[in-house]
Amino acid sequence: MMDKAKIEKYLDLVTDRLINLQRPDGEEEMLKRQKETNQIIGAFPRDFGMEPWDWPQGVGLYGMWKRFGNYRNEAISDYLNQWFSRHLGEDIPKQNINTTCPLLTLAELTEKNPAYEKLCNDWARWIMEELPRTEENGFQHTTTKDASKGTLNMNENQMWIDTLFMTVLFLAKWGIKTGNQAYMEEAVHQYLMMIKYLYERETRLFYHAWDFTDRSNFGKVFWCRGNSWYTASVLDFVEIMGDNLGQAVKEILLDTFRAQASALKALQSKNGLWHTVLDDAGSYEETSGSAAITYGILKGIRLGILGDDYKDTVNRAIEGILGNIREDGTVMNVSAGTPVGKDRDHYKNIFIAPMAYGQSLCMMALTEALLADSGENI
Predict the structure, then answer these.
(1) 176-186 pLDDT, tens per residue?
(2) 281 Cβ partners below 8 Å, 6+ apart?
(3) For residue range 44-70, what is the model confidence (pLDDT) as tens digits?
(4) Residues 158, 211: contact at Cβ < 8 Å?
(5) Distances from the Cα of 294 to the Cα of 138, 220, 306, angstroms
(6) What are the respective helix, strand and coil percentages of the chain, to the nearest 5?
(7) Are 227 and 207 in contact (CB under 8 A)?
């Protein structure tokens, strides 16, 4: 049985640390090392604190919203409103897949602020009408290259599994809130595209990306955090869509979730976490992807999608997560922002440092752990 008092203690620590997360010590040395070794260390300062508007902060905000939604912590509500109010008074970065992520939380706050509603409407229209597409109308995974210059990494004709969490969940949520059937159907389409092109049937795991130009999955690597974007998002997606999701599609999404969960269960390390290359025990154990996987499996158990045979898996995972949280609430062993790689070494050499999304995904796992044994239906 999980020690819920201990989980609550660490959840408070991780939350407080996320709000106050700063850029890392020794940053100049990190940048020097990157030039010398070509090690990928993420974007400075984007990945580390809660100040910029991009995907790390978007995931961070969603973790806070999850905690608020279950426990109505007013301090978190105040923080969320202050964060968005401050950023709407400044320049918001150019629209792309990753900068959409903060709207997943903003969509929950629109009732009291017309400016929030307008931004969500404008952004949803951009997704539908202007977001670059791949063949077969997949969402092309555009990302920020230089926010100050408004430049993008276009990633031509590429679909990345990250897109599900960063953009598709928001589009589904806004479709439900506005009754826009086209938004809902497009969100369903994107989930099915990811399964079609990224899901590998023999292993029951997801590749990171698909390139329509090369007709390839790049290095065919089963990246931990990449897989976790499906594990962590799909039950939220089914929940958001509710009766608006056709039964056949729902069954495909959930069958894929169950199959992936079974594969992940078999690959869990003895310490409770998952390796950054899931099927490579020589790669480091990575906390953010492990936390997102734990969140999804915990929710699957609570909703009756997964059976009690997964309880040992999540108990060990929670202990592994707690073992990677320092006394000041900093989540350790989190990998930096990760572009698609052409081999396993690319993923194994990603730099490790405290990140906003590492804090948040642990918040989501710990919040869901506190809901354990309160069974529901989906």
Answers:
(1) 999 999 999 99
(2) 269, 275
(3) 567 778 989 999 999 999 999 998 876
(4) yes
(5) 28, 23, 12
(6) 60, 10, 35
(7) no
